[in-house]
Design a protein that fits this description.
about 525 residues
Length: about 525
Protein backbone atom coordinates (compact mmCIF):
# COMPACT_ATOMS: atom_id res chain seq x y z
CA UNK A 1 0.00 0.00 0.00
CA UNK A 2 1.71 1.96 0.01
CA UNK A 3 1.79 3.75 -1.33
CA UNK A 4 2.66 6.97 -3.08
CA UNK A 5 3.68 8.93 -0.05
CA UNK A 6 3.28 12.55 0.79
CA UNK A 7 6.79 13.76 0.19
CA UNK A 8 5.76 14.03 -3.46
CA UNK A 9 3.55 16.93 -2.46
CA UNK A 10 6.63 19.07 -1.93
CA UNK A 11 7.36 19.02 -5.64
CA UNK A 12 6.01 22.54 -6.17
CA UNK A 13 9.20 23.99 -4.73
CA UNK A 14 11.10 21.84 -7.19
CA UNK A 15 9.10 22.92 -10.23
CA UNK A 16 9.62 26.58 -9.39
CA UNK A 17 13.39 26.24 -9.88
CA UNK A 18 13.94 23.41 -12.39
CA UNK A 19 17.45 24.48 -13.32
CA UNK A 20 18.57 24.05 -9.73
CA UNK A 21 17.54 20.39 -9.74
CA UNK A 22 18.37 19.52 -13.35
CA UNK A 23 19.22 15.84 -13.56
CA UNK A 24 22.45 16.66 -15.41
CA UNK A 25 23.41 19.95 -13.76
CA UNK A 26 23.06 19.23 -10.04
CA UNK A 27 26.29 20.22 -8.35
CA UNK A 28 28.20 17.06 -7.47
CA UNK A 29 25.50 14.88 -8.90
CA UNK A 30 26.88 13.43 -11.77
CA UNK A 31 12.08 -21.97 -2.32
CA UNK A 32 8.88 -21.40 -2.24
CA UNK A 33 8.43 -21.49 1.53
CA UNK A 34 11.27 -20.35 3.69
CA UNK A 35 12.06 -20.28 7.36
CA UNK A 36 10.24 -17.65 9.33
CA UNK A 37 11.68 -15.17 11.79
CA UNK A 38 13.35 -16.74 14.76
CA UNK A 39 13.59 -20.20 13.15
CA UNK A 40 16.54 -19.43 10.87
CA UNK A 41 17.40 -22.73 9.28
CA UNK A 42 14.18 -24.69 9.52
CA UNK A 43 11.93 -25.34 6.57
CA UNK A 44 8.20 -25.43 7.04
CA UNK A 45 7.99 -28.85 5.47
CA UNK A 46 10.35 -30.16 8.18
CA UNK A 47 8.52 -28.64 11.12
CA UNK A 48 5.98 -31.47 11.34
CA UNK A 49 8.84 -33.86 12.21
CA UNK A 50 9.78 -31.80 15.25
CA UNK A 51 6.23 -31.78 16.54
CA UNK A 52 5.64 -35.50 16.89
CA UNK A 53 5.54 -35.19 20.66
CA UNK A 54 2.87 -32.48 20.51
CA UNK A 55 -0.25 -34.43 19.68
CA UNK A 56 -2.89 -31.69 19.46
CA UNK A 57 -0.72 -29.40 17.43
CA UNK A 58 0.40 -32.14 15.06
CA UNK A 59 -3.23 -33.00 14.43
CA UNK A 60 -3.96 -29.40 13.44
CA UNK A 61 -1.05 -29.28 11.04
CA UNK A 62 -2.08 -32.57 9.48
CA UNK A 63 -5.56 -31.17 8.95
CA UNK A 64 -4.02 -28.17 7.23
CA UNK A 65 -2.07 -30.32 4.80
CA UNK A 66 -5.16 -32.37 4.04
CA UNK A 67 -7.39 -29.40 3.37
CA UNK A 68 -4.90 -27.40 1.30
CA UNK A 69 -5.68 -27.88 -2.35
CA UNK A 70 -2.71 -28.44 -4.65
CA UNK A 71 -2.36 -25.89 -7.41
CA UNK A 72 -2.68 -28.59 -10.04
CA UNK A 73 -6.24 -29.31 -8.88
CA UNK A 74 -7.44 -25.90 -10.02
CA UNK A 75 -8.91 -26.05 -13.49
CA UNK A 76 -7.94 -22.75 -15.01
CA UNK A 77 -9.89 -23.56 -18.15
CA UNK A 78 -13.31 -23.42 -16.48
CA UNK A 79 -15.08 -20.11 -15.89
CA UNK A 80 -14.72 -19.23 -12.22
CA UNK A 81 -16.92 -16.61 -10.61
CA UNK A 82 -16.31 -17.42 -6.95
CA UNK A 83 -15.07 -13.87 -6.41
CA UNK A 84 -18.35 -12.24 -7.48
CA UNK A 85 -20.25 -12.37 -4.14
CA UNK A 86 -17.43 -10.71 -2.22
CA UNK A 87 -16.53 -8.11 -4.86
CA UNK A 88 -19.10 -5.44 -3.86
CA UNK A 89 -17.85 -5.52 -0.28
CA UNK A 90 -14.21 -5.32 -1.40
CA UNK A 91 -14.91 -2.41 -3.74
CA UNK A 92 -16.72 -0.60 -0.93
CA UNK A 93 -13.66 -0.94 1.30
CA UNK A 94 -11.28 -0.01 -1.54
CA UNK A 95 -13.15 3.30 -1.87
CA UNK A 96 -11.35 4.27 1.34
CA UNK A 97 -8.02 3.84 -0.44
CA UNK A 98 -9.36 5.95 -3.31
CA UNK A 99 -9.68 8.72 -0.72
CA UNK A 100 -6.07 8.12 0.34
CA UNK A 101 -4.89 8.70 -3.21
CA UNK A 102 -7.19 11.67 -3.72
CA UNK A 103 -6.02 13.47 -0.60
CA UNK A 104 -2.37 12.86 -1.50
CA UNK A 105 -2.86 14.58 -4.85
CA UNK A 106 -5.48 17.21 -3.99
CA UNK A 107 -3.04 19.67 -2.43
CA UNK A 108 -0.20 19.22 -4.90
CA UNK A 109 -1.31 21.44 -7.77
CA UNK A 110 -3.11 24.28 -5.94
CA UNK A 111 -0.67 24.61 -3.00
CA UNK A 112 0.65 27.95 -4.25
CA UNK A 113 -2.88 29.31 -4.75
CA UNK A 114 -3.81 28.18 -1.24
CA UNK A 115 -0.71 29.87 0.18
CA UNK A 116 -1.48 33.17 -1.58
CA UNK A 117 -5.12 33.20 -0.50
CA UNK A 118 -4.46 32.22 3.11
CA UNK A 119 -1.50 34.53 3.57
CA UNK A 120 1.52 32.23 3.80
CA UNK A 121 2.86 32.67 0.26
CA UNK A 122 6.64 32.51 0.25
CA UNK A 123 6.77 30.87 3.70
CA UNK A 124 8.26 27.50 2.74
CA UNK A 125 8.25 26.29 6.34
CA UNK A 126 4.50 26.85 6.65
CA UNK A 127 3.89 25.29 3.25
CA UNK A 128 5.82 22.23 4.40
CA UNK A 129 3.82 22.18 7.64
CA UNK A 130 0.51 22.27 5.74
CA UNK A 131 1.70 19.17 3.89
CA UNK A 132 3.35 17.40 6.82
CA UNK A 133 0.46 17.81 9.29
CA UNK A 134 -1.22 15.13 7.18
CA UNK A 135 1.48 12.65 8.29
CA UNK A 136 1.08 13.59 11.96
CA UNK A 137 -2.65 12.90 11.73
CA UNK A 138 -2.01 9.64 9.87
CA UNK A 139 0.32 8.42 12.62
CA UNK A 140 -2.35 9.08 15.24
CA UNK A 141 -4.92 7.32 13.05
CA UNK A 142 -2.71 4.25 12.68
CA UNK A 143 -2.44 3.90 16.46
CA UNK A 144 -6.16 4.36 17.14
CA UNK A 145 -7.37 2.35 14.15
CA UNK A 146 -6.17 -0.98 15.48
CA UNK A 147 -7.89 -0.41 18.83
CA UNK A 148 -11.18 0.57 17.20
CA UNK A 149 -11.16 -2.31 14.71
CA UNK A 150 -10.78 -4.79 17.56
CA UNK A 151 -13.26 -3.09 19.85
CA UNK A 152 -16.26 -2.26 17.64
CA UNK A 153 -15.56 -4.33 14.54
CA UNK A 154 -14.17 -3.63 11.08
CA UNK A 155 -17.41 -2.34 9.52
CA UNK A 156 -18.29 0.14 12.26
CA UNK A 157 -14.70 1.39 12.33
CA UNK A 158 -15.01 2.23 8.64
CA UNK A 159 -18.12 4.28 9.32
CA UNK A 160 -16.63 6.07 12.33
CA UNK A 161 -13.45 6.73 10.36
CA UNK A 162 -15.38 8.54 7.65
CA UNK A 163 -16.40 11.34 10.05
CA UNK A 164 -12.99 13.09 9.98
CA UNK A 165 -12.83 12.42 6.22
CA UNK A 166 -16.12 14.32 5.76
CA UNK A 167 -15.29 17.13 8.18
CA UNK A 168 -11.62 17.58 7.28
CA UNK A 169 -12.08 18.44 3.58
CA UNK A 170 -15.12 20.61 4.43
CA UNK A 171 -13.07 22.63 6.94
CA UNK A 172 -10.26 23.01 4.39
CA UNK A 173 -12.73 24.08 1.69
CA UNK A 174 -14.05 26.84 3.97
CA UNK A 175 -10.67 27.84 5.39
CA UNK A 176 -9.89 31.54 5.62
CA UNK A 177 -6.79 31.17 7.80
CA UNK A 178 -3.84 28.81 7.71
CA UNK A 179 -4.88 27.40 11.10
CA UNK A 180 -8.21 26.26 9.68
CA UNK A 181 -6.38 24.61 6.79
CA UNK A 182 -4.10 22.83 9.26
CA UNK A 183 -7.06 21.52 11.26
CA UNK A 184 -8.71 20.22 8.09
CA UNK A 185 -5.56 18.50 6.86
CA UNK A 186 -4.90 16.95 10.28
CA UNK A 187 -8.42 15.48 10.35
CA UNK A 188 -7.93 14.05 6.87
CA UNK A 189 -4.63 12.53 7.98
CA UNK A 190 -6.34 10.98 11.00
CA UNK A 191 -8.93 9.30 8.79
CA UNK A 192 -6.36 8.13 6.24
CA UNK A 193 -4.17 6.71 8.99
CA UNK A 194 -7.02 4.48 10.12
CA UNK A 195 -7.86 3.51 6.53
CA UNK A 196 -4.37 2.41 5.53
CA UNK A 197 -4.38 -0.40 8.08
CA UNK A 198 -8.12 -1.14 8.07
CA UNK A 199 -8.64 -1.65 4.33
CA UNK A 200 -6.14 -4.51 3.75
CA UNK A 201 -7.11 -6.04 7.10
CA UNK A 202 -10.82 -6.12 6.21
CA UNK A 203 -10.35 -7.33 2.62
CA UNK A 204 -7.97 -10.10 3.69
CA UNK A 205 -10.50 -11.33 6.26
CA UNK A 206 -13.54 -11.44 3.97
CA UNK A 207 -11.88 -12.72 0.77
CA UNK A 208 -11.93 -16.37 -0.33
CA UNK A 209 -8.45 -17.90 -0.13
CA UNK A 210 -8.18 -18.47 -3.87
CA UNK A 211 -8.77 -14.80 -4.76
CA UNK A 212 -7.40 -13.06 -1.67
CA UNK A 213 -4.27 -11.70 -3.34
CA UNK A 214 -6.06 -10.24 -6.35
CA UNK A 215 -8.83 -8.73 -4.24
CA UNK A 216 -6.38 -7.22 -1.73
CA UNK A 217 -4.44 -5.63 -4.58
CA UNK A 218 -7.50 -3.44 -5.19
CA UNK A 219 -6.15 -1.39 -2.26
CA UNK A 220 -3.25 -0.19 -4.43
CA UNK A 221 -5.48 0.23 -7.47
CA UNK A 222 -7.81 2.40 -5.41
CA UNK A 223 -4.92 4.61 -4.29
CA UNK A 224 -3.63 5.01 -7.86
CA UNK A 225 -7.11 5.85 -9.11
CA UNK A 226 -7.54 8.50 -6.43
CA UNK A 227 -4.25 10.17 -7.36
CA UNK A 228 -5.11 10.27 -11.06
CA UNK A 229 -8.61 11.64 -10.38
CA UNK A 230 -7.22 14.38 -8.15
CA UNK A 231 -4.71 15.37 -10.83
CA UNK A 232 -7.39 15.54 -13.52
CA UNK A 233 -9.79 17.48 -11.30
CA UNK A 234 -6.94 19.85 -10.55
CA UNK A 235 -6.64 21.01 -14.17
CA UNK A 236 -9.00 24.01 -13.67
CA UNK A 237 -6.79 25.14 -10.76
CA UNK A 238 -4.18 26.20 -13.33
CA UNK A 239 -6.45 29.06 -14.41
CA UNK A 240 -8.84 29.46 -11.47
CA UNK A 241 -7.00 30.42 -8.24
CA UNK A 242 -10.05 29.53 -6.13
CA UNK A 243 -10.73 26.10 -7.64
CA UNK A 244 -8.95 24.39 -4.74
CA UNK A 245 -12.02 24.99 -2.56
CA UNK A 246 -14.19 22.92 -4.93
CA UNK A 247 -11.55 20.17 -4.93
CA UNK A 248 -11.72 19.91 -1.15
CA UNK A 249 -15.53 19.86 -1.22
CA UNK A 250 -15.40 17.01 -3.72
CA UNK A 251 -13.12 15.15 -1.29
CA UNK A 252 -15.94 14.95 1.27
CA UNK A 253 -18.31 13.15 -1.10
CA UNK A 254 -16.69 9.64 -1.18
CA UNK A 255 -16.50 9.61 2.63
CA UNK A 256 -20.20 10.42 2.96
CA UNK A 257 -21.05 7.72 0.42
CA UNK A 258 -18.92 5.17 2.24
CA UNK A 259 -20.77 5.73 5.51
CA UNK A 260 -23.97 4.67 3.74
CA UNK A 261 -22.37 1.89 1.67
CA UNK A 262 -20.80 0.25 4.71
CA UNK A 263 -24.27 -0.15 6.20
CA UNK A 264 -24.85 -2.80 3.51
CA UNK A 265 -21.39 -4.41 3.73
CA UNK A 266 -20.71 -7.52 5.80
CA UNK A 267 -18.74 -7.68 9.00
CA UNK A 268 -15.56 -9.74 8.91
CA UNK A 269 -16.48 -13.38 9.67
CA UNK A 270 -13.14 -13.74 11.46
CA UNK A 271 -13.93 -10.83 13.78
CA UNK A 272 -17.41 -12.26 14.39
CA UNK A 273 -16.00 -15.69 15.24
CA UNK A 274 -13.35 -14.15 17.44
CA UNK A 275 -16.10 -12.43 19.42
CA UNK A 276 -18.25 -15.55 19.75
CA UNK A 277 -20.87 -14.58 17.15
CA UNK A 278 -20.73 -17.93 15.40
CA UNK A 279 -24.18 -17.90 13.82
CA UNK A 280 -23.56 -14.57 12.14
CA UNK A 281 -20.09 -15.70 11.09
CA UNK A 282 -21.59 -18.84 9.50
CA UNK A 283 -24.20 -16.77 7.65
CA UNK A 284 -21.54 -14.38 6.35
CA UNK A 285 -19.27 -17.19 5.15
CA UNK A 286 -22.19 -18.81 3.34
CA UNK A 287 -23.04 -15.49 1.67
CA UNK A 288 -19.47 -14.66 0.61
CA UNK A 289 -17.80 -18.01 -0.03
CA UNK A 290 -20.67 -20.37 -0.78
CA UNK A 291 -22.36 -23.28 0.97
CA UNK A 292 -19.57 -25.71 0.09
CA UNK A 293 -16.99 -23.73 2.07
CA UNK A 294 -18.96 -23.34 5.29
CA UNK A 295 -18.00 -26.55 7.12
CA UNK A 296 -14.28 -26.32 6.43
CA UNK A 297 -14.18 -22.59 7.17
CA UNK A 298 -15.95 -22.99 10.52
CA UNK A 299 -13.60 -25.83 11.49
CA UNK A 300 -10.58 -23.68 10.70
CA UNK A 301 -11.99 -20.70 12.58
CA UNK A 302 -12.67 -22.84 15.66
CA UNK A 303 -9.21 -24.36 15.45
CA UNK A 304 -7.72 -20.88 15.16
CA UNK A 305 -9.85 -19.68 18.08
CA UNK A 306 -8.55 -22.57 20.21
CA UNK A 307 -4.97 -21.64 19.31
CA UNK A 308 -5.52 -17.96 20.06
CA UNK A 309 -6.93 -18.81 23.47
CA UNK A 310 -8.47 -15.85 25.27
CA UNK A 311 -11.44 -14.18 23.61
CA UNK A 312 -10.54 -10.64 24.62
CA UNK A 313 -8.57 -8.55 22.15
CA UNK A 314 -4.78 -8.48 22.08
CA UNK A 315 -3.02 -5.77 24.07
CA UNK A 316 -0.10 -3.77 22.70
CA UNK A 317 2.18 -5.62 25.11
CA UNK A 318 1.30 -8.93 23.45
CA UNK A 319 3.19 -7.85 20.34
CA UNK A 320 6.33 -8.61 22.34
CA UNK A 321 5.34 -12.27 22.70
CA UNK A 322 7.27 -14.67 20.47
CA UNK A 323 4.34 -15.66 18.25
CA UNK A 324 3.50 -12.00 17.53
CA UNK A 325 6.96 -10.46 17.70
CA UNK A 326 8.13 -12.26 14.58
CA UNK A 327 5.30 -10.93 12.43
CA UNK A 328 5.40 -7.44 13.97
CA UNK A 329 9.12 -7.15 13.21
CA UNK A 330 8.59 -8.36 9.66
CA UNK A 331 5.69 -5.95 9.15
CA UNK A 332 7.62 -2.97 10.51
CA UNK A 333 10.72 -3.95 8.52
CA UNK A 334 8.82 -4.24 5.24
CA UNK A 335 7.37 -0.74 5.59
CA UNK A 336 10.72 0.68 6.73
CA UNK A 337 12.51 -0.86 3.74
CA UNK A 338 9.74 0.26 1.39
CA UNK A 339 10.20 3.89 2.39
CA UNK A 340 14.01 3.80 2.34
CA UNK A 341 14.09 2.11 -1.06
CA UNK A 342 13.49 5.53 -2.62
CA UNK A 343 9.84 5.87 -3.62
CA UNK A 344 9.63 9.41 -2.26
CA UNK A 345 12.92 10.45 -3.83
CA UNK A 346 11.87 9.30 -7.29
CA UNK A 347 8.53 11.10 -6.93
CA UNK A 348 10.24 14.25 -5.70
CA UNK A 349 12.49 14.51 -8.74
CA UNK A 350 10.03 13.18 -11.31
CA UNK A 351 8.93 16.70 -12.35
CA UNK A 352 12.50 17.89 -13.01
CA UNK A 353 13.30 14.60 -14.78
CA UNK A 354 10.47 15.15 -17.26
CA UNK A 355 11.28 18.87 -17.52
CA UNK A 356 14.87 18.09 -18.56
CA UNK A 357 13.52 15.65 -21.16
CA UNK A 358 11.47 18.46 -22.73
CA UNK A 359 8.16 17.84 -20.95
CA UNK A 360 7.69 21.13 -19.15
CA UNK A 361 4.05 20.57 -18.21
CA UNK A 362 4.11 19.29 -14.63
CA UNK A 363 0.58 17.89 -14.94
CA UNK A 364 1.60 15.72 -17.90
CA UNK A 365 4.53 14.35 -15.92
CA UNK A 366 2.38 13.63 -12.88
CA UNK A 367 -0.32 11.90 -14.93
CA UNK A 368 2.32 9.80 -16.73
CA UNK A 369 3.73 8.63 -13.40
CA UNK A 370 0.22 7.95 -12.08
CA UNK A 371 -0.82 5.94 -15.15
CA UNK A 372 2.33 3.80 -15.06
CA UNK A 373 1.77 3.16 -11.36
CA UNK A 374 -1.83 2.19 -12.09
CA UNK A 375 -0.72 -0.18 -14.86
CA UNK A 376 1.74 -1.85 -12.51
CA UNK A 377 -1.00 -2.31 -9.91
CA UNK A 378 -3.25 -3.97 -12.53
CA UNK A 379 -0.49 -6.38 -13.52
CA UNK A 380 0.15 -7.15 -9.85
CA UNK A 381 -3.53 -7.93 -9.36
CA UNK A 382 -3.46 -10.48 -12.18
CA UNK A 383 -0.28 -12.17 -10.89
CA UNK A 384 -0.80 -12.06 -7.13
CA UNK A 385 -2.56 -15.43 -6.83
CA UNK A 386 -0.55 -17.06 -9.62
CA UNK A 387 3.06 -16.11 -8.92
CA UNK A 388 2.63 -15.51 -5.20
CA UNK A 389 3.39 -12.63 -2.85
CA UNK A 390 6.99 -13.51 -2.03
CA UNK A 391 8.06 -13.90 -5.65
CA UNK A 392 6.39 -10.64 -6.72
CA UNK A 393 8.04 -8.82 -3.82
CA UNK A 394 11.49 -10.04 -4.85
CA UNK A 395 10.91 -9.25 -8.54
CA UNK A 396 9.63 -5.81 -7.61
CA UNK A 397 12.62 -4.80 -5.50
CA UNK A 398 15.03 -6.25 -8.05
CA UNK A 399 13.41 -4.06 -10.72
CA UNK A 400 13.59 -1.04 -8.41
CA UNK A 401 17.32 -1.64 -7.83
CA UNK A 402 17.93 -1.88 -11.60
CA UNK A 403 15.92 1.31 -12.15
CA UNK A 404 18.03 3.13 -9.57
CA UNK A 405 21.15 1.94 -11.39
CA UNK A 406 19.76 3.40 -14.64
CA UNK A 407 19.12 6.74 -12.91
CA UNK A 408 22.66 6.82 -11.48
CA UNK A 409 24.13 6.07 -14.91
CA UNK A 410 22.03 8.88 -16.40
CA UNK A 411 23.43 11.27 -13.78
CA UNK A 412 27.06 10.18 -13.79
CA UNK A 413 28.03 8.56 -17.09
CA UNK A 414 29.58 10.76 -19.81
CA UNK A 415 26.98 10.87 -22.57
CA UNK A 416 24.89 13.27 -24.60
CA UNK A 417 22.39 15.18 -22.45
CA UNK A 418 19.43 14.11 -24.56
CA UNK A 419 20.31 10.44 -24.04
CA UNK A 420 20.84 11.02 -20.31
CA UNK A 421 17.47 12.71 -19.99
CA UNK A 422 15.78 9.87 -21.86
CA UNK A 423 17.45 7.34 -19.55
CA UNK A 424 16.22 9.32 -16.55
CA UNK A 425 12.64 9.17 -17.80
CA UNK A 426 12.94 5.43 -18.49
CA UNK A 427 14.47 4.82 -15.07
CA UNK A 428 11.73 6.83 -13.34
CA UNK A 429 8.83 5.11 -15.10
CA UNK A 430 10.39 1.66 -14.71
CA UNK A 431 10.87 2.30 -11.03
CA UNK A 432 7.24 3.33 -10.60
CA UNK A 433 6.00 0.28 -12.53
CA UNK A 434 8.10 -2.20 -10.57
CA UNK A 435 7.19 -0.52 -7.27
CA UNK A 436 3.50 -0.99 -8.08
CA UNK A 437 4.20 -4.59 -9.05
CA UNK A 438 5.11 -5.72 -5.55
CA UNK A 439 6.64 -3.27 -3.09
CA UNK A 440 3.45 -1.21 -3.03
CA UNK A 441 0.64 -3.82 -2.90
CA UNK A 442 2.36 -6.89 -1.42
CA UNK A 443 3.58 -5.06 1.67
CA UNK A 444 0.02 -4.22 2.67
CA UNK A 445 -1.33 -7.65 1.70
CA UNK A 446 1.12 -10.04 3.29
CA UNK A 447 1.25 -8.50 6.78
CA UNK A 448 -2.40 -9.22 7.70
CA UNK A 449 -2.04 -12.66 6.10
CA UNK A 450 0.77 -13.55 8.50
CA UNK A 451 -1.08 -12.43 11.65
CA UNK A 452 -3.47 -14.26 13.93
CA UNK A 453 -7.02 -12.93 14.12
CA UNK A 454 -6.40 -11.86 17.70
CA UNK A 455 -3.31 -9.75 16.88
CA UNK A 456 -4.00 -8.73 13.26
CA UNK A 457 -5.35 -5.22 13.88
CA UNK A 458 -2.62 -4.35 16.38
CA UNK A 459 0.22 -5.60 14.18
CA UNK A 460 -1.16 -3.73 11.17
CA UNK A 461 -1.40 -0.59 13.30
CA UNK A 462 2.20 -0.98 14.49
CA UNK A 463 3.48 -1.60 10.94
CA UNK A 464 1.69 1.48 9.60
CA UNK A 465 3.12 3.57 12.45
CA UNK A 466 6.58 2.54 11.24
CA UNK A 467 5.51 3.53 7.73
CA UNK A 468 4.45 7.05 8.73
CA UNK A 469 7.49 7.67 10.94
CA UNK A 470 9.80 6.54 8.12
CA UNK A 471 7.86 8.72 5.69
CA UNK A 472 8.31 11.72 7.97
CA UNK A 473 12.07 11.29 8.38
CA UNK A 474 12.59 10.73 4.66
CA UNK A 475 10.81 14.02 4.02
CA UNK A 476 12.82 15.75 6.73
CA UNK A 477 16.31 14.64 5.72
CA UNK A 478 16.06 13.82 2.00
CA UNK A 479 17.27 17.18 0.67
CA UNK A 480 19.90 17.42 3.41
CA UNK A 481 21.30 14.03 2.33
CA UNK A 482 21.41 15.21 -1.29
CA UNK A 483 23.30 18.36 -0.34
CA UNK A 484 25.77 16.34 1.75
CA UNK A 485 26.37 13.34 -0.52
CA UNK A 486 24.93 14.16 -3.95
CA UNK A 487 21.94 12.71 -5.74
CA UNK A 488 23.84 9.77 -7.35
CA UNK A 489 25.08 8.62 -3.93
CA UNK A 490 21.60 8.86 -2.43
CA UNK A 491 20.11 6.93 -5.37
CA UNK A 492 22.84 4.32 -4.96
CA UNK A 493 21.81 3.97 -1.32
CA UNK A 494 18.19 3.48 -2.38
CA UNK A 495 19.29 0.76 -4.79
CA UNK A 496 21.28 -0.96 -2.06
CA UNK A 497 18.22 -0.95 0.22
CA UNK A 498 16.18 -2.48 -2.61
CA UNK A 499 18.69 -5.32 -2.97
CA UNK A 500 18.75 -5.78 0.80
CA UNK A 501 14.96 -6.13 0.72
CA UNK A 502 15.26 -8.91 -1.87
CA UNK A 503 17.56 -10.76 0.53
CA UNK A 504 15.19 -10.05 3.43
CA UNK A 505 12.18 -11.42 1.54
CA UNK A 506 14.17 -14.47 0.46
CA UNK A 507 15.16 -15.23 4.05
CA UNK A 508 12.15 -14.28 6.17
CA UNK A 509 8.97 -14.23 4.06
CA UNK A 510 6.94 -17.38 3.52
CA UNK A 511 4.56 -17.81 0.59
CA UNK A 512 0.94 -17.31 1.54
CA UNK A 513 -0.94 -17.80 -1.72
CA UNK A 514 -3.46 -20.61 -1.79
CA UNK A 515 -3.67 -20.92 2.00
CA UNK A 516 -6.38 -19.74 4.34
CA UNK A 517 -5.42 -17.29 7.06
CA UNK A 518 -5.91 -20.04 9.62
CA UNK A 519 -3.60 -22.41 7.73
CA UNK A 520 -0.93 -19.71 7.60
CA UNK A 521 -1.33 -19.13 11.31
CA UNK A 522 -0.66 -22.80 12.07
CA UNK A 523 2.36 -22.89 9.77
CA UNK A 524 3.93 -19.80 11.33
CA UNK A 525 3.33 -20.81 14.95
CA UNK A 526 3.41 -24.62 15.10
CA UNK A 527 4.50 -24.67 18.77
Amino acid sequence: MATLCTLALHSKALVSSPSLFSSRNLTGFRSRRRSFGAVPNAKIGEEDKTLSSKQARSSSLEDVSKTTKPESSIDLGDPDFGWVPVLPHVLTAAMANFMFGYHIGVINGPLESIARELGFDGDTIMQGFVVSIFIVGAFAGSVSGGVLADKIGRRRTFQLDMIPLVLGPAISANAHTVNEMLIGRALVGLGIGINTSLVPLYISEISPTKYRGALCSLCQIGTCTGIIVSLLLGIPAQTDPHWWREMFWIGSVPAALLIVAMQFAVESPRWLARNGQWEEALSTIKKLWGEAEVEQAIQELKRSSDVDGEKDQASWGELLLAQNRKVALIGGSLFFLQQFAGINGVLYFSSSTFHDAGISDGLTASVAVGVVNFAGALVASSLMDKQGRRKLLMISYTGMAISMAVLVVALEAPMDDSIAHLLSVIGTLTYMFTFALGAGPVTGIIIPELCTTRSRAKIMAFSLCVHWVSNFFIGLFFLTAIQAFGLPAVYTGFGAVSLATVAFANSFIIETKGKSLEEIQLLINPD
